Fold these 3 entries.
Entry 1:
Amino acid sequence: MGTDQGAAVRKSEKDKQDFSPEQQVVNINKELFDYSFATISSERNFYQAIHKIFEEVSLRFSLDRSTLMEWDKVNRKIRVTSRWVREDDGNDLEKMEQSASINWFIMEQYYQELEYNILTGGKDGKEDYGRDIYAMNKVPVSAVQFPILDSGKMAGVLTFESWKERDWSKAEIATLSSITKMISSYMLRRQMKAELEAEYVVGKKAMDVQNLIYYVVGEQDYRIRYMSHYARECYPDAKYGQLCYEAFMGRKAPCQACPIKACQAGEEQSIVETYDSEEDNWYTLTASVMDRESGARQFLLCKSNVTAFLERVKGEDQLTGVLSYEKFKLEAVRIIKKEKGSFALVFMGIQDFSRINDEYGYEVGDQVLRKFAEEVTIGLRDGELICRIKGDDFAILVNRRSVERMSQRVGELSSTLTDLFRERFPNISINCFAGVYDISGREEYISRCLDRAMKARKVALKNIYETGGVYVYSKEFELQEKEREETNRTMKNCLQRGYFKVYFQPKVDIVTNEIIGAEALVRLVDKDQHIISPGRFIPLAEESGLIVEIDKYVYEETFRLIKKWQDEGRKVPLVSVNVSRLHLLNDNLPVYMKSLSDKYGLKPEQIELEITESVFFEDTERLVDMIKQMKDIGYITSMDDFGAGFSTLSLMKSLPVDVIKLDGGFFLKNQLDGKSRAVISAMMQLAENLGFKVVSEGVETMEQVEFIREQGSRCVQGFYFYKPMPPEEFEKLLKPSE
Ligand code: C2E
Ligand code: MG
Ligand code: MG
């Protein structure tokens, strides 16, 4: 360790030292300084440049480690941002940062007066940093530090270290000092530029997202110098150099109420409100002074449409004249508090309202909404309120007694509206529906009540015929909702943790008794290893959309297993997977499937896609197109659960599927009576005549197998042969491939 006491050199002492400015030039290592300057100015990456400079300096001056530490404004910590080491220092980085963090503000004080600081054995003239220093793997026995100050604040520090005793010559100090100054000027300029750029990007984004119309005009000539993107969008004919009142106000002379005038009279900023009678809109126009360096002043003008805001403040819905939602909330809270009576919140709408707009035009749509509001308003009692939230979403606060008559009122409203428009549009049918939430005795936020009424309205719409278009939110419904949410959460968890498993149920050729196919069926295995069957979770997963993720998991797992079995030399029969309704809505499904089978190196012909019958009634045309695409790729396709719903024989004719799976319901534990025998027989005949392959599902008894055999049909999937089984069991049934 050095015996010298460390030296801190005061700025004032600098002059006393024997290197005057002229001598300094002589004293500094010019070659090293030139190299550093050239590197920093030519290297695009700042930190790479610093590293190169550190390397050169350290080799020249026989140093062991050189570092640049910076104050990271965003994360509010000190970071080593560049470092050169002669040999491995056992990664002292963290310790250096820690030590610097503790001493940073002491250093800041210190360097107000000091030019640089020499530390010998962890000490300088004032402080002893020994403990921090000796905690390092490599002890900087002798070091010199130079601060980088930004308006008196420590922005960084450069440290040059030797792990052996050494003296620092004046020439060395002068050289390092000059290099530090150069680095610090580059670094601070670089930071300033980055900050300005960030400010510009944020500012621009803030302006753009608000859709602000702003533009800059010259003080004397009112000619446009700049326009915001949105200004150009709203006024596509406006041109640079054009008069602002001409371009933005459509006037031939300057506006009477022009905010620039106040600015010309000395105000920094001025705001005026104007009404545009042609557009029927209110605007605020703000002008502020922008001084250009040349002295020619300009004005920044910002024009913003405040019509909607005024409507809201006025509390009226422009289209129907009923309350705005904001006003409704205020009024409703006041009434509920004051009257302490029993109220219910009703959320109403019109079934398929967008179709009315599409078919009869927006004008008619608007008329329907106005009439709706008018009719409901007529029926309101004292203290009851109606507002329009948006589109055909109406919220109504009613006395609890009105709830009993709600079904009747909704029914009457539907017939009144339909009758009113039937004269002009004989085919029109307007059906209203409502969700009701009883708030009696509760103090709740209106938005929360509305949320519940909205959920109830969904049920009313889904079951419009059973509910008569009205559904009241109940305790049981709330519990069910909670349960559904819980199950959904559990399913998501299970998916993440891999608790879903794929089972396989073989399909058998009843003539040869051979396995000629299998269906992949998902299972949920809970933490107690109980197996939960899909009947319990698939409908929910379909509702929440999670089915897409579950199916993707099933496809991946199934394809992976097929590939594995194949590679193990087993003969894998055609395996089918179920495709849910939601998947079919996605136009990318064929591409996704193809990429998946490619990923596992499988041919599409090895996979069958089962699509449940009920889907075929929703959008037959689209579905037929999707199936054709799947078939073109090479997948086998089948219609699942055939006969369970409303399958019509005519539909059968237009379907491009290869296979028809007769629904298990035909066979399940049924004693095959004469009638069902006749139906099954007819369907099988027809299907085979039309060229479909037939699979009979849910076959449980010998008698059923015999009956199928008699019909000349061969493929059976049912408990009589096999139940769905885990892959480990299924693979044992697979024969070696020839
Ligand atoms: P599905 O596609 O019609 O599948 C056939 C169902 O019939 C399976 O029920 C199977 O276990 C059952 N089954 C087969 N033979 C017999 C039998 O002889 N007797 C009785 N009682 N049942 C039999 P599972 O596995 O409970 O699946 C029920 C439904 O859940 C499936 O009907 C399918 O619609 C859906 N599902 C199953 N796995 C998936 C999947 O991975 N994705 C999607 N989207 N749906 C799936
Ligand atoms: Mg199926
Ligand atoms: Mg089925």
Note: Residues 280 and 307 are 9 Å apart (CA to CA).
Entry 2:
Amino acid sequence: MPISTKPLTGSDFVVEVSGIDLSESQDAETIAALRTALGKHSILVFRQQSLTNEQQIAFSRNFGELEIHLVRQYLMPEHPEIIVLSNVGAGGVKPTANGGAYWHSDISYRAKPPLGSLLYGVEVPPEGGNTLFANMYGAYDTLSDDLKNKVDGRKAVHSYLGRFMAMRDRDTSHKGEDKFELDEEQQESFPPVLHPIVRTHPESGRKALYVNDGFTIGIEDMDEDDGKALLRKLNIHATRDPLLYSHAWQPGDVVFWDNRSTMHCATSYDPVHTRTMHRTTIQGDTPY
Ligand code: OGA
Ligand code: MN
């Protein structure tokens, strides 16, 4: 059966894909169709999947090499391609309270940030714990002329450590979050990088805003305070309601998002419930 897509929002941001079992091997035509759909829609939702670790890795590899995250404490020991986000700890990985509860695009602090990520809901709470997504094509398209002029052709600084320090300084509730406990080698593996603030999606050809609250810490050749103020404005603009999709997880959901044209943010839930998610991350190219 060929795959079919059904929009989940009023726009073409986010489609549910049916007619595909991700545990099976896929032909080149199906992968090409999914790749095109990702560039067009930014978020692909697959329901009622049942995946072993090997199957999630194999399906993800159809789209490129997989990223092995530098913060190794959340990687599955037997399968370092899988990051485990779980409030109870699972698969030999220690628990993390609220990983990703800030607006970000995964690993944007690398010179070649990932093309996309696949998150598999293994065990999810009955309510809450949604993942919010922001449409960064839409964010660029709806920028005022004034803001467009300010950002066109400019670059922003992305850093994992910048986020670590900023969050620690400004929000003490993050003090206990163990994601911030980086050893020196890990700290040295995160030098700041520059990326264009407006990037062109290599497949769709569309422009997307490419800054995020989590990892973008300044703007090249701009005074620090002015840069931070502009970044704040851009983030507020990009996370307005009409640009958002909130994914309410059911067990067996796989959400495949495009990191080049979206940001995402985890939301809270009652911690008496277990939430265990498995993520694979597909390597991408230098943004332009
Ligand atoms: C991620 C992430 C958010 C969530 O897996 O990259 O940010 O809702 N997850 O679990
Ligand atoms: Mn993330």
Note: The mean pLDDT is 92.
Entry 3:
Amino acid sequence: MLTHILFCELWGNWDSDKLHRMKRVFIETYGCQMNVYDTELIKSILGAAHYDVVTSEHQADVVMLNTCSVRENANRKVHLRIQELRRNRPQHSIAIGVLGCMATNFKTALLEDPQLGIDFIAGPDSYKQLPQLIENAWQGGSDRFDVTLSEFETYSDIEPTRDSAVNAWVAIMRGCNNFCTFCVVPYTRGRERSRTIESVSDEVKRLVDQGFKQVTLLGQNVNSYRSDAHDFTDLMDAVSQIDGLERVRFTSPHPKDFPNRLLSLMAERETICKQIHLPLQAGNSRVLSKMNRTYTKEEFLSLVERIRSLIPKVALSTDIIVGFPTETHDEFLDTLDVVQQVQFDSAYIFKYSERPNTVAARRFPDDVSEADKTARIVQLNECQRNISLSKNKACIGSNERVLIEALSTKKSELDCQGRTDSNRIVILPLQADVTLGQMRQVRIVDATPNVLKGEWV
Ligand code: 5AD
Ligand code: SF4
């Protein structure tokens, strides 16, 4: 409230045309789901400061890019986009802000780069300062930069402005203490901190009252959640019992935090989806140790076995990096071997990309050639594509409960789409009685590596 009053007083001194113009903001989001969620928080913070969030840069006075630093190509994309925005800037002057992981990663270097012409910068823990930073930027002041990382900021007092209607993302913890040697996240997002169970449960209850059917609990290490004496299992237990909630998912966990208590709860609680994203990163134990992943190939395989023994029908997806420094061809074959043994339902596979400040960047030269990285990613993608296809084909003929999430698809207005409990996308013919958020029985009639086709039962 205080910020709000202060803000209005400051605006009061300005001519009304400028005031009106300054209030239109466009936000573009890059990278992970946490960034999508953060954009929802930012919309809420700016809404309270009487900004209009517009849907095109051409209507905006302030353009913000909520950025990702996890791989170099995400970085490059943002640099190109800033140059494009500067080139095509509208008649009136626009202010450009860089938010998120690139902001913390490059700090003042971004502001000092005359080619970019960035006006203000806010790191992932500084979004409450945004109204002030924008205003300082507009006035040409020097205080246009805040990338302080906090040990406490969880934004639990801010209700995000959500674009979705069926699934709501709910951040339960932020930051990461693991320092995998390839990863920039601990440097750009700081240390782990969690919201209380009460704060998360209250938010989920409000979401159910608003009509949301599913929540996906979010965190950089979601299952390392810890609040007072409570762990992630306690939180899942509380959230999954909230009346009216149909489904609970979570992402992204670390393989180190899967106690049997959590797996048993997942098995017995109907509202918890039988689906786990389980990042492997590499299948060779020497490479895993160099990555600081804290498990060996054998330990990962036995975790998968334990998960499947407790949750027999569980769907597993993963993240993999190929070409980590010093990875040999034989060591890559261990990754291929794990992929073949585990038979993940889907996988996101990346070429290693050196990130500034990380242990790997400081100590391990990026010595796997681009050609080898390409050959490995092609081979792994091919292998996973076949596995995903045969797993999806095995669904043909089965009946599934599908939560309807969209009334059109990218390809057709005549189709709608939903997801199975296992997180598979199902495309269905749109009918008059179909509404968003319905849970429907469907029969699977066809499959590709990425989607299922269904018909109404
Ligand atoms: N290079 C390539 N991929 C990376 N990831 C994280 N850091 C890097 C990097 N430096 C991948 C990991 C992680 C996913 C979100 O991004 O697989 O799980
Ligand atoms: Fe990055 Fe590892 Fe933390 Fe995940 S667990 S955010 S990969 S450092």
Note: The pocket of 5'-deoxyadenosine (ligand 1) is lined by residues 70-71, 182-183, 279, 281, 319, 321, 350, 352-353, 355 (CB under 6 Å).
